[in-house]
Amino acid sequence: MLRAVIKVGIVGGTGYTGAELLRILVRHPHAQVVMLTSRQEAGRRADQLFPQLRGHCALAFEPPDVTRLCACDAVFFATPHGTAMQMAPALVDAGVRVIDLSADFRFADPAVFKRWYGLDHACPQLLAEAVYGLPEVNRARIRTARVVGNPGCYPTAVQLGYLPLLEAGLVDCDTLIADCKSGVSGAGREAKLGSMFSEVADSLKAYGVGGHRHWPEIVQGLTRMAGSAIGLSFVPHLVPMVRGIHATLYARLHRPGAADLQALFERRYASEPFVDVLASGDHPETRGVRGSNVCRIAVHVAPDGRTVIVLSVIDNLVKGASGQAVQNFNLMFGLDETLGLVSPPLSP
Ligand SMILES: NC(=O)C1=CN([C@@H]2O[C@H](COP(=O)(O)OP(=O)(O)OC[C@H]3O[C@@H](n4cnc5c(N)ncnc54)[C@H](OP(=O)(O)O)[C@@H]3O)[C@@H](O)[C@H]2O)C=CC1
Ligand SMILES: CC(=O)N[C@@H](CCC(=O)OP(=O)(O)O)C(=O)O
Hints:
This protein is an alpha/beta fold. It has helices at 16-25, 46-49, 66-69, 84-93, 110-117, 124-129, 135-144, 153-167, 197-200, 214-226, 261-268, 318-332, and strands at residues 6-11, 31-37, 74-77, 97-100, 131-132, 147-149, 176-182, 205-206, 232-238, 245-252, 275-277, 295-301, 307-314. The N and C termini lie far apart (39 Å).
């Protein structure tokens, strides 16, 4: 359905992903943001809180109100887990398409959601019809979805890195290792001790080694790609940068040397607008995708000849969150998938 203006609401407009949605949507040719919510900043103009939006957005924040949100064509939830699932049923009943950046609609099984997020799902029926918003895997289903569960940031980088290998059945699915690093904006804009400059700068640390909530999400996605159970070790690290995810992914080849891995990756992503496969032997870096919706990938074989090492980088706030959400929005409304999303990364 192609419309000249699509009315958009953003719930959680004061967070990092909400602000990034605004940055993208204010220059989108068909989307018009008509409602922006915040409980703490209600009444304040968005361009007062975010001076980078001066001249681009004159809206004021207002408290989240489902009835008012029902006047939108699409609503993005850039809120903590547990919020979207409370409001989505009324919106969907009113014909509003929902794109949730939290984990509320990412899991097929509400028991897995409960185990990792500690919440009973508020609308399991809607969860059952929600589509996981990774366009490179689910494009056709996203087009017709009423609710999209936008993937997490680490899961986006990891799944896109492993996808060609698992689809082709080339690697041992029991011994996958994802060694990942994230910038601090991944932790959100809320003030927290662990996100303070003096706690993060000039240091690097792993966290969540005993079980991070992105592990079950990645396992769910990789299992679907492989068509069988997989075994994954996933270790996230916090690094002193603002944006960016770097995933170093390991897998054991069933038949070393049997396949041209570079050709496999190039073929799989040839028609993907936002996946860029580097030339053989190259090393992507996070600053090369900063501010862009690109996932940049390089595939290597270790000197042992049988270990594949894939490097996958994204901007956590763009392809890892708000950019991917707009990519899904474009698909849902029958638009060119790249609208609002094509701009060169910011570098240096
Ligand atoms: N940061 C990242 O890199 C990524 C984040 N995500 C996910 O996106 C979501 C948003 O993340 P992020 O922008 O970093 O978070 P922030 O903490 O920066 O922002 C959260 C926003 O949600 C609003 N909010 C909080 N609680 C509620 C509530 N109960 N009802 C309505 N609004 C609420 C806040 O405003 P107020 O309190 O004023 O209402 C604020 O605007 C999270 O689920 C996160 O896990 C996903 C991928 C990457
Ligand atoms: C650096 C940092 O703290 N990153 C966050 C993940 C990013 C995120 O927001 O999680 P979702 O993608 O599931 O929404 C974390 O590890 O919890």
